[in-house]
Structures are given as C-alpha cells and as structure tokens.
Amino acid sequence: MIENNPLTIRNEAVQVDLSTGRMPDRYVYEFQMLIREFLPFASFQDPGPQAIHILAESDHAELVRGDVHLRKEYDQEDPGLTGDPLKNHVKKAIYELLTEYNGIHVPWGILTGVRPTKIAYAALDQGKSENQIMDTLVRSFCLSREKASLMTETARHERQILSGYDGKDVSIYVGIPFCPTRCAYCSFVSYDYSRYGQLSEDYLDALIHEIEVCQPMIAGRRLQSFYMGGGTPTVLSAGQLERLILSIQKAFGENVFKEWTVEGGRPDTITKEKLNVLQQLGIRRISINPQTLNQKTLDRVGRRHTVEQIYEAYDLAREVGFDTINMDFILGLPGEGVEEVERSMEGVLRLKPENLTIHTLAIKRSSALNQEGTGSDLAQQGPLISRMLEVTQSTAQALGLSPYYMYRQKNMAGNFENVGYSLPGHECTYNIEIMEERQSILAFGAGAVSKIYYPDENRLERVPNVKNVTDYIERVDEMIERKRRELGV
After folding, report:
1. Structure confidence at residue 214 (pLDDT)
2. Helix 382-398 to helix 338-351 angle, to the nearest 10 degrees?
3. Angle 307-320/272-280 helices, nearest 10 degrees?
4. How much is the pLDDT for 200?
5. Helices 117-125 and 130-141, interaxial angle, to 10°?
6. Is the dihedral of CA 374, 416, 390, 311 positive or negative?
7. Which H helix or E strand runs over 262?
8. Residue 118: how many other CB atoms lie within 10 Å
9. How far apart are CA 9 and CA 94, in angstroms?
10. DSSP state, 140?
11. 258, 356, 460, 489 - which has most CB atoms within 10 Å?
C-alpha cells in the first residue's frame, strides 16, 4: 500500500484515458465500474489535478497521482474464459494497480456484472471441468479461491435445474407495489399501504386486465414458473389475494406452472386466513423475510414488527401446511456486527427453512440509507462482511443447504454477493431463470419489467411497465401494447 496517499471514499475523482486506439469507448464504463469496486462513489467528471489518472496503453496500464506512478504489464498469453482479451487485460491491470495503491483486495476480482455465474455456466457448456474453471477465474479474473468455488458450484446447480429448457419457455411475474412501511435500505417500487391502499382495488382491476389481455400473446409456449413479488403481496386482504390468484389461474390454467411462489415478506402482513387462501389455491412456496432477528435493527430500518411476530408467522405457515419456506437476511445493516448475525442465524437453525437467501447490503441511490449518508465506507467493510458470510455459510451447511443462485449489485458492502441456498428439490426455479436469462419472463404490474428472450440470437429485450401506481392504472393499455409490439402479435 502506498503510504500517505489514502483514498477517500465518497468524493474521489478518477480520470480514465484510453491510448491504445483499439479499445472501444464503451469499455470505459466497465473500467469505471471496476474502479467503483474500490471507490464506490468515485466521480469521473471534471477530475482536476488531484485526481487519480489511469492510462491504458497497448501493452500496459499506469496509475498516476501526484508523485505516485505505478505500472502493470499485460499478460498477453492469458486469454481468460470469455470476452475481449484486451479488455480483460486492462481490467486486470487496473485491479492490480488499485490493489497495490490502497491495499484493498476485492474478492470478485475484475468481475463487475450482476450475473457472474454466466461465465462459469458457459464454460461448463463448453465442456471445461470445474477445476479448470476455478483456476482460470483465480488466475485471469483475480477472484479469490472461495468466490471461484462458490461461482462454479452455483453454476453447476443452475445447469442441472435448467437442463430441459430450450429458450422458448415463459415464466410469469406479478408485482404488488404496496408495503406496510418503506424499509430504509429499499429501492424497489413500493408504496406505503396506509397512504395508497385505497388504490388497491383499482390496481387489481388494471393488473387483472393486463394479464387477461396478454395471455393469448404467449399461446402455445410452455409455462415454467409463477412468482408474485413486490412490495409485499400479503399486504392485500385474503379476499383480494383470492381474486387475483383465481384470475391468474383462469387465464393460464391451474396446473400449468411447475412452481407457484408468493412473497409473504413482512410477517406483520401474514394471517392464517391469507395463508389458507394461498394453500388452498395451490401455492406451495412462500417467503417470510425478516432481514434480521435483532429488534434494535428492525426498529432502526423501519420495519414495524417484532422478532416474535417473525417466529409466529413462520410457525403459522408450518401449521397451515407450507413445506417450502424461504427466509431473507441482509448482512451489513446499520449497527450490526458478527454477534448480531450469529443471533439471527441461531434463529434460522431453530426454524429450519428449506430456503435461505443471504444478501449483502447494497446502498441504492433512492434508499433512505443513501440519502442520509450511510454506506460511505462500503469498500472498507470487506473483513467484517467476510466474517459475517462465514457465519451464514456455516448455518447453510449445518441445515444441508447448497448455493443454487447468486447475483451481485453495485455499491455492495465489502464488494461481496447475494446467495440463495436450498435443500435439494426445494430450489426456486424462477430465481435461476431471472439470473441466467435463458427464457422469457412476462411481467405484470407497476414497475414490472418483462424480458423477452430470442434463443436463436441469444438476445434479451426488456419491456418495462411504468413505476407509478396511478400512472399504471391509467395507462395499463399502453403497457399491454408495449408487450404486443415486442412479441409481434
């Protein structure tokens, strides 16, 4: 680490210069995203004389700041697993320069995308062994051995589950954009039900209309998964849930989906009546997502329920007969350390869910945590988050759960990942489908984004719905027309 040249986290200015003449300008964005793995809030505008300057030449890269001048040669003999070799050489050199400059070792190396498992998935398709893939990930992409192993194991499970897909399948997503309160870390489309609940009937009318009109657009395609998320779907009444699900089953059929999943999410919205409705209508997978089992943290992030309510909702779901329950937790919440995570995982060991999803806190621009300045030291949290991850991984192993899907986000604490663990046979196929992008997903509701897959071209086109609930209600026919144009029907 270079002494007396500390990197400030929030306001660091960086200039990236491409001098090779062979590097497309679009790669500058990828380089900037890699730099933000070290400096989450780096600025690339008007860098000025005190900025860090990173220069990419035809055979080497340099980092210059004041009297500091570092240089890294490219390993021209290493093609890596995928992509443009020159781009990967430059990214690796930038990674090594920034690691030398400030001593931070980013566990995911030069990978900056949301879906890192795609690289391992493709390599497995090409017949490469898991050991070959891990060695290349460590050598060429600078991953830690632990992350390379996690990525390869997850990709193997994904391939096993998606083995029968031909790219012409379709899954369905339905979004309910209401919540009891808005959590401090949340950036999803979500409206406080106490203020906007009066719109729920009009919203359901528009939602059901969108579903009914769009259903013929995918006639003849094989349906795979159904997922209702949000927001918090169980903020709706039992009668509203019944009306919506019956409408979906009338449109698509009762037994056509291989899995039906509904996010319960907030335990303060879960009642026996609602659970009975879901169970009787064939829903077998639900989520009860506490994020933490520490009351002080729940209060701090705006979740207005108790730890006891989490246990009560979970026990009620078991009593009603649900045999696949997912629980979400977030590492890096304000005020939490390893001890708090251990306390949460003690509760998980007691409850024994079939699915466990571990998120690393990501500070989103629209979240309250970002607006109040929390998260300015994200890149420095690696050692703490790493210890937390060890606790959650041990918990998953103790319950017999294996990683089956994974993704990353911008501005994550310690630059880590989100991982879904599952017992064999209880994986949420929809989660894998949305990550691997090897089939179409038709999405309904405010803020929902359809993804239409063209297998012959391996191309995905996004078709977004408007986010505002009132706009969605008023413009639902426009949302239908967007889908019709993309699907060509």
Report:
1. 97
2. 20
3. 40
4. 97
5. 140
6. positive
7. strand 259-265
8. 18
9. 17
10. H
11. 356
Please tell me the total number of residues recorded for the chain in this structure. Answer: 489
CA distances from 193 to 79, 177, 182, 190, 367 (A): 53, 9, 10, 9, 18
Residue 14: DSSP 8-state? E
HSE, CB side, 13 Å, CA atoms: give it for residue 324.
21
From the number of C-beta atoms within 10 Å of its C-beta (0-12, 13-18, 19+), residue 430 rates as buried
Q: Supply the pLDDT for residue 366.
A: 46
What is the maximum alpha-carbon separation in the chain? Answer: 70
Crossing angle of the two packed helices 429-436 and 117-125, in degrees rounded to 10: 90
364, 188 contact by CB (below 8 A): no
3-state helix, strand, coil in the chain (%, to 5): 45, 20, 35
Token output for 63: 């980092």
Q: Which of 204, 289, 217 is nearest to 248 (CA)?
A: 204
Q: DSSP string of 226-251?
A: EEEEES-GGGS-HHHHHHHHHHHHHH
Q: Give yes or no for a contact between 181 and 303, defined as CB atoms under 8 angstroms apart.
A: yes
- List, for the chain, all residue ranges whose pLDDT scores fall below the cut of 50: 1-11, 366-367, 370-371, 375-376
| Closest C-alpha among 282, 167, 285, 170 to residue 224 | 170
Dump pLDDT digits (tens) for 315-367: 999 999 999 999 999 999 988 999 999 999 999 999 999 999 999 988 755 44
- Model pTM score: 0.90
Burial class for 287, CB neighbours closer than 10 Å (0-12, 13-18, 19+):
buried
Measured in whole angstroms, how far is the alpha carbon of residue 452 from the centre of its chain?
Answer: 19
How many other β-carbons are positioned within 10 Å of the β-carbon of residue 376?
15
Query: Rounded CA gap, 294 and 336, in Å?
Result: 9
Residue 167's CB is within 10 A of a number of other CB atoms, namely 12
> Using an 8 Å Cβ cutoff, are 413 and 246 in contact?
no
CA distances in angstroms from 229 to 76, 297, 337, 444, listed in the order given: 46, 24, 29, 11
